Amino acid sequence: MDYLVRATAADLQIRAFAVTSKELVEQAGQAHQTSPVATAALGRTMSGALMMADSMLKNEEDVMTIQINGDGPLGGIVVTADHHGHVKGYVHQPEVYLPDKIKGHLDVGGAVGKGTLTVIRDMGMKDPYVGQIELASGEIGDDLTSYFAVSEQIPSSVGLGVLVAPDRHVLQAGGFIVQLMPFASEETISRLEENLKKIDPVTEMLQNGLSPEDMLEKILDGWNVERNGRTEVSFSCDCSRERVERALILLGKKEIGGLIREGKEIELGCSFCGKKYSFTPEDLLRLQAEAHE
Ligand code: ZN
Q1: pLDDT above 90 covers what percent of the chain?
Q2: Cβ contact 194:212 at 8 Å
Q3: How far apart are CA 137 and CA 113, in angstroms?
Q4: In whole numbers, what is the pLDDT of the chain averaged over residues?
Q5: What does pTM read for this prediction?
Q6: CA end-to-end span of the chain, whole Å?
Q7: From the CA of 236, how far away is ligand 1's center (Å)?
Q8: What is the DSSP string of 247-271?
Q9: 87 C-alpha to ligand 1 centroid (Å)
Q10: How far is the CA of 153 from the centre of ligand 1 (A)?
Q11: Long-range contact pairs involving 255-260 (C-beta distance under 8 Å, separation at least 24)
């Protein structure tokens, strides 16, 4: 089962999150038929988004979207997470294959390329809160670390990892975010830096059987870790036939007319979860009647 945990340490000078997300990354990979490097890029972004949504969203209806636009062959990544542990997302080009830069390490940075990372927080106000940075390396973890420093002014370390077998199965997925509060002492900062130097990469920790709780114990070694609960997380989409119908109606009478003249059933897929919705010419006639000129 996938879940995330949150904790604080050193009298609230540090707050931290960790997640295991193997099942949801596997599901997303199957939904979108992603290549191993595309699965890793999407999985890292989804893992990061889940922890960020948990830490930065406040209300029931709030949602957070991470958009990565790079000049690499992957084209881009879009991931949306809510306050309840639900995440959905896709990459623009799911069938990307690149040689490993380091043997056994998928070249996520090469697949993403150079570009921007945008975080959009929709908090139910008229305008969403938007922050954008230049990608640091395209490896996602570095990019989110940079986002927190530049856009939120919160010194953070973000570690993310997805291990994919050659047969495309996800062996491990997860990550952590650790953040220093503004009143953190020099001693706290330097000990945390030492701890972060000592830990293994995320996929290695997970392969060694560490749970999210164990990862936080390693990162926060030497402090009393105060755990603040856990939340189940899942790949989940809120699309519906009604929503797809509304999008079709917005095309207008003329466009729908064109589809009807083709005289056959059309199929529309949800870009976030891959679910297919089909419409017969009769369905389209009914929708056309509701559309504007
Ligand atoms: Zn969907």
Answers
A1: 89
A2: no
A3: 8
A4: 95
A5: 0.93
A6: 49
A7: 8
A8: HHHTT-HHHHHHHHHTTS-EEEE-T
A9: 11
A10: 34
A11: 256/284, 256/287, 256/288, 256/291, 257/288, 259/284, 260/284, 260/285, 260/288
Centroid of ligand 1 to alpha carbon of 246 (angstroms) = 14
Give the residue-averaged pLDDT of 52-60: 93
∠ CA 152-271-160, rounded to 5°: 40
CA of 58 to the centre of ligand 1 (A): 24
How remote is the CA of residue 72 from the centroid of ligand 1, in Å? Answer: 25
Per residue in 188-225, pLDDT (tens digit) is 999 999 999 999 999 999 999 999 999 999 999 999 99
Distance from residue 270's CA to the centre of ligand 1 (Å): 5
Round to whole Å and give the CA distance between 97 and 107: 9
SS3 74: coil
Q: Is 76 helix (H, G, I), strand (E, B) or coil?
A: strand
Place of tokens 């059933």: 265
